[in-house]
Amino acid sequence: MLSTPKGITVERDTHFIIDTPENITATYKRQMLDLIDLGGQVKRVRAEPGIENAQLIGLTVYQTQVIATCCLKNPLHDYKQQIFKKAQASRSPDLYNVELGYITTHPDFEGEKYCQHLLKEFFFKISHLSMFATTRKPAMKHILEKYGFYQLGVRYGDQLDLELMLYEGAFG
Ligand SMILES: CC(C)(COP(=O)(O)OP(=O)(O)OC[C@H]1O[C@@H](n2cnc3c(N)ncnc32)[C@H](O)[C@@H]1OP(=O)(O)O)[C@@H](O)C(=O)NCCC(=O)NCCS
């Protein structure tokens, strides 16, 4: 169990790792998977290959523990087509080659802006790209909108609670 995050200064006590999957250690990848699992939005068996196939991974590490994650994913063609179709999106999926996903913060650290601090660092590397994201979480939607994403189409999924979010990068 991690110690309480209260009193931690992001700049002083944590560091960011933003790198390609092959440069992330197995330990950090396992911790990332554990966190994604804990977040409950993506199944571990799906996240495992997704991480290995990603373009870029972002981690916030407190001491030796990953406490926040994000990922620039290379979505499978059929998966992307399906999402845009289900959301009845009026934009072509072909315009959005990458997906922002696997965004999680350890429950002990939630609400302390760790997600936003990590995305700020991550966006220095990815803000030129057009991308999509999906979410059912109002907090996630709120954060994505702060970074320039907008919702397109209709809610979809079994519970009609998923939303497609798009971001228009400078160079596609
Ligand atoms: C969603 C999640 C990543 C947010 O991480 P976090 O580190 O707690 O987020 P931050 O503290 O940086 O920011 C939270 C923001 O959401 C806002 N927020 C919280 N609850 C909200 C709600 N119900 N509706 C709208 N906004 C909400 C907060 O006010 C804050 O925004 P602000 O800084 O403008 O005030 C985290 O809760 C999580 O890991 N959840 C489980 C996994 C998950 O659902 N991931 C998203 C997959 S799409």
Set out the fold topology:
Blueprint: H1 10-13, E1 14-19, H2 26-39, H3 44-52, E2 56-62, E3 65-73, H4 77-86, E4 98-105, H5 114-126, E5 131-135, H6 138-146, E6 150-156, E7 162-167
Parallel strand pairs: 4-5
Antiparallel strand pairs: 1-2, 2-3, 3-4, 5-7, 6-7
Helix pairs in contact: 2-3
Structural write-up:
It is a single chain. The protein starts with 9 loop residues before the first helix and ends in a 5-residue tail after the last strand. The protein has helices at residues 10-13, 26-39, 44-52, 77-86, 114-126, 138-146, and strands at residues 14-19, 56-62, 65-73, 98-105, 131-135, 150-156, 162-167. The mean pLDDT is 93. β2 and β3 (65-73) form a beta hairpin. Helices cover 34% and strands 28% of the residues. α2 (26-39) crosses α3. It has a single domain (12-167), classed as Gcn5-related N-acetyltransferase (GNAT) (Aminopeptidase), CATH 3.40.630.30. It has 172 residues and is of the alpha+beta class. The structure holds coenzyme A. Residues 39, 41, 103-105, 110-116, 135, 137-140, 142-143 line the site of coenzyme A. Coenzyme A is lined by residues 39, 41, 103-105, 110-116, 135, 137-140, 142-143. This is GNAT family N-acyltransferase.
